[in-house]
Structures are given as structure tokens and as C-alpha cells.
From TrEMBL:
InterPro entries: BRO_N_domain. Residues 1-124 form the Bro-N domain. This is Transcriptional regulator. It comes from the Bacteria.
Length: 259
């Protein structure tokens, strides 16, 4: 679904896909005041290794029709590369037109607005893994496979493992020996120390974020530094998860630390 946005005197069409805005190369060329649309493609091709999948992708257009041709030419599949707001910002970092700097600032405002919109917590994997019964993938970096068994009608957790094979072996081991992989108990003093350290980290990161917004970001923007884009993502993503961490460790009470 197209959305129309206005940058200076340019009306830009953005594609709304899964709650995110995407621009075609032709749209970015217009915004950056290039005379030819292939300039954006050239910029991307020279720097493709710096783009992540969330910055650019290829959409298939199934509705293209050619006039004056036979019906065999209708509804042909065409592919076009599109860029997210962050991808468009990176394109603008490499652009050499006079308007590029102003376009980057405009994009940063859009990125902040887009990031502030709550996203659904439901994630549908494009290629869902087929797993054995009672083995689940829980997105852990080191031990992603969580194993359970059913014992007398009750679900019993038997541990997390780095591979499917080890998770299945743990299920079998439970039925053979009754053994489960238990998490070691932590003493109250260790819990208090951990929570105190975590609160100190949260407190310090909030102060660093204040300095970033008030001093570092404006200074880097004035120098037209590429670090603005890289650090913006890091700070924005980190601050987005801070409230969740705070809620997990109890009510957040900042420790008395020097500012």
C-alpha cells in the first residue's frame, strides 16, 4: 500500500509493508535530486556489503501490464529493489548531492517515529523449523532447543541444549533414569548483588544516552559523520529494551551514583 510523504518540494511514494516504510530506487533518486534513477542502484552496488536484510530487499510486482501487446504480456512478474528508512539513510550517507544532508535528517525523524510505534510481539518465521515432539526453539544463542516430556499427564522440563539431537537424548534419558537438567540455585546474596549491578548498568546507560542525545549526536551531525547512523541504531535499540529489563528485576530505583 503506497503512502505519500513530502520532502521539500518532492512528493515521495513509500510502500507500507508489514508496518514499515520502503522506498524504491527511483523515489530515492528523486528525493536526492539525481537526474537518473540508476544512480541509487550504482551507490548500492558499490556498497552492498554494508547493507543488512532489514535495510534492503527485493519485492515482486505481479500487477505490471504492457499496453499494445497481446494478453500473454500481462501480469508479468517483475522484481524491484526497495530500501527501508534505515537503508535509505545509508544510501544518503553515500550520496554526493547538496540535498543529501538535509534528507538524512528528515529520514532520522521518520526512523524515530517508526521506532516509537509498538510492534506485535508475535513473530512468524518464514521457514519454521520442524522439530521432534516436545522440543521447542526458544531463540537462545547458545542453547536454543528446550526439551520437555509428558509424565503422568504433566509436562516436565528437562533442559536446554545446543542441538536437537541432544534435546531428544535428554528426553530419552529422563525416561531411562529420571534425570533432568536443573538450573543451579542462586543464593539470596548473589541475587541481590546481581540486581544491584544490573541497576547500576541501567542507570549508567541512561546517563550515557542523555549525553548522546544532548551532545554527541548533534556534534557528529555537524561533522556529517557516518557514526550518527551506526550509533543511532545502537542507542535506539538498547533504550527500547531497557524498560523490559527494569520490569524483570523489580521496580527500578536508580542507585546513588555520581553523574
Amino acid at each position: 500500500m503506497p503512502n505519500q510523504l513530502v520532502f521539500k518540494s518532492h512528493t515521495l511514494e513509500a510502500i507500507d509493508h508489514e508496518g514499515k516504510l520502503w522506498f524504491t530506487a527511483a523515489t530515492l533518486a528523486s528525493a536526492l535530486e539525481y537526474s537518473r534513477g540508476d544512480k541509487i542502484t550504482q551507490i548500492y552496488n558499490r556498497n552492498a556489503d554494508e547493507f543488512t536484510p532489514c535495510m534492503t530487499t527485493v519485492f515482486e510486482n505481479l500487477n505490471l501490464r504492457f499496453s499494445g501487446k497481446s494478453s500473454g504480456y500481462s501480469n508479468l512478474k517483475t522484481k524491484m529493489r526497495v530500501f527501508s528508512l534505515r537503508g535509505a539513510h545509508l544510501i544518503a550517507m553515500f550520496a554526493s548531492t547538496p540535498v543529501a544532508k538535509e534528507f538524512r535528517r528528515w529520514l532520522l525523524d521518520l526512523i524515530e517515529k517508526e521506532s516509537s510505534v509498538p510492534q506485535s510481539s508475535t513473530v512468524i518465521a518464514p521457514h519454521r523449523e520442524c522439530l521432534p515432539k516436545m522440543v521447542y526453539n526458544h531463540r537462545s544463542k547458545y542453547n536454543p532447543y528446550r526439551a520437555y516430556v509428558t509424565d503422568n499427564g504433566k509436562s516436565v522440563y528437562v533442559g536446554c541444549y545446543p542441538s536437537v539431537e541432544e534435546a531428544v537424548a535428554a528426553q530419552q534419558r529422563y525416561f531411562n533414569t529420571g534425570e533432568v537438567k536443573r538450573i543451579q540455585e542462586i543464593s539470596d546474596s548473589e541475587k541481590e548483588m546481581f540486581i544491584g549491578n544490573l541497576q547500576a548498568i541501567l542507570h549508567n546507560f541512561r546517563r550515557i544516552d542523555e549525553i548522546w542525545r544532548a551532545q554527541l549526536r548533534p556534534a557528529l551531525e555537524a561533522m556529517d559523520s557516518k557514526l550518527v547512523y551506526l550509533l543511532f541504531d545502537r542507542f535506539n535499540d538498547s533504550m527500547a529494551v531497557l524498560p523490559t529489563i527494569e520490569s524483570r528485576v523489580g521496580r527500578y530505583v536508580p542507585p546513588k551514583l555520581p553523574r
